[in-house]
Design brief:
This protein is an all-alpha fold. The protein has helices at residues 2-14, 24-32, 37-50, 57-66, 70-94, 99-107, 112-146, 150-167, 170-198, 203-212, 217-231, 238-242, 250-278, 288-297, 301-332, 337-351, 356-395.
Length: 400
């Protein structure tokens, strides 16, 4: 799947003409300068879904099994992922909906069954990757701090369920993410920056190790795997958020999709990687971040890591609840959305007791089932994206 998504990014960049849209000057002109309240809200929702535990523990796993060179291939995966995310956000804005809409409307009614497959997979995935896996990570973190017991897990599950009940209204959820996402990113990056600054003397050796180990097969494999898993390019989740920015043109929203990938992989994952490499290796990848942070925060490092993981995980839960609602609404209509919300809250409460390995396995399967119809649509619609972008450039304007 990572290889398929990487080649899709190359195809979209070349055949879809999106590589020319990835230049910083173009992104600044089309995306950041035109960012308004609705665009910021859509960007925060998309970032909440992509920025998660994979940016901390996932990076540690990639460097542990793939070596320092894996970080270079995470950067490469970000470039191909940007081309994919640009196309996803572009089409979501154009057809006013997530992949199920640009599949059915862009490819025609003959592909409506493919849109249904995506929506069904997204609804189930929201209960797994966006719920069970995230709540399980929160419960595991709490168990590591306070002792693994049924009471601790029950408190975690109940707390997430209560916060979900409060935040599940669309307006409340959006406002929560607008404040939560910038705060959690700044909080975590501050910790990473402090560690990197203290161990700055080790950075030249770390960059040398990244270059030396970049051609190892395991570095390529783990770098791509964790990079794609982190930014979720090709899965088709974040276009559901980008479609909510009704006032933007497709080209503007595509630029925000690139910003989302850059923040996730090129900023947050890079800070994690440099923090880890500047502190040497560890025997356990799951404990590596805490060990690195302890060089600055001492005994409070476990608490800092736990708070960061909890914020990242809960923001993902909020974002994926929105994705699942939209997929469920596509399949069954808006009148039955309360049934989905009840199921999502109940799943959050029970997920603290489920096996994290099982939740991750189901998540991977559902993400693959989401990615396949989404990638097929992106490839088939690439020529139309290329033609429209060419027309934009000829006219020198943002919309046809």
């Amino acid at each position: 799947m990572p290889l398929l998504i990487a080649f899709t990014g190359l195809w979209l960049g070349i055949r879809g003409g999106t590589f020319s849209e990835l230049r910083p000057s173009v992104i600044k002109k089309n995306g950041l300068r035109r960012l308004d309240k609705n665009g910021f809200s859509a960007l925060c929702t998309a970032l909440a879904g992509t920025v998660g535990t994979g940016n901390i523990v996932g990076v540690a796993v990639a460097l542990y099994f793939g070596g320092p060179g894996a970080l270079l291939w995470m950067w490469v995966s970000a470039v191909t992922g940007m081309a994919v995310k640009y196309s996803e956000a572009y089409l979501a804005s154009k057809y006013r909906g997530g992949p199920m809409f640009y599949i059915s409307r862009g490819l025609g009614s003959g592909f409506s069954h493919l849109a249904g497959v995506f929506a069904a997979a997204a609804a189930v995935a929201s209960l797994a990757v966006g719920n069970a896996a995230q709540v399980g990570a929160i419960a595991e973190t709490a168990a590591d701090l306070f002792g693994d017991s049924a009471g601790i897990r029950a408190i975690c599950g109940l707390a997430v369920a209560v916060f979900l009940i409060i935040s599940m209204k669309t307006e409340t959820r959006g406002k929560t993410l607008n404040y939560l996402v910038p705060f959690m990113a700044a909080f975590y990056l501050f910790g990473c920056a402090a560690v990197i600054a203290k161990n700055s003397a080790a950075l030249p050796a770390a960059f040398a190790d990244i270059l030396k180990g970049s051609l190892r097969p395991e570095a390529i494999a783990w770098g791509f795997r964790r990079g794609i898993a982190s930014n979720e390019a090709g899965v088709g989740s974040s276009p559901i958020a980008h479609a909510e920015n009704r006032g933007a043109s497709p080209r503007q929203e595509g630029a925000l999709g690139v910003v989302e990938t850059a923040v996730d992989t090129l900023v947050i994952s890079t800070f994690t990687g440099l923090m880890l490499l500047s502190c040497g290796t560890a025997e356990n990848p799951a404990l590596w971040p805490s060990r690195a942070l302890s060089s600055v925060f001492g005994g409070s490092a476990r608490i800092f890591t736990a708070v960061s993981l909890t914020l990242f995980a809960f923001s993902s839960v909020l974002s994926w609840s929105f994705y699942g609602e939209k997929a469920f609404e596509y399949l069954f209509g808006s009148r039955r959305i309360k049934l989905y919300r009840i199921a999502f809250v109940a799943a959050a409460g029970l997920s603290a007791f489920l096996s994290l390995e099982s939740a991750v396995a189901v998540s991977d399967l559902m993400c693959a089932l989401m990615a396949l119809p989404n990638i097929a649509a992106l490839i088939l619609l690439a020529p139309s994206i290329c033609a429209e972008l060419h027309a934009y450039r000829l006219r020198g304007q943002e919309t046809p």
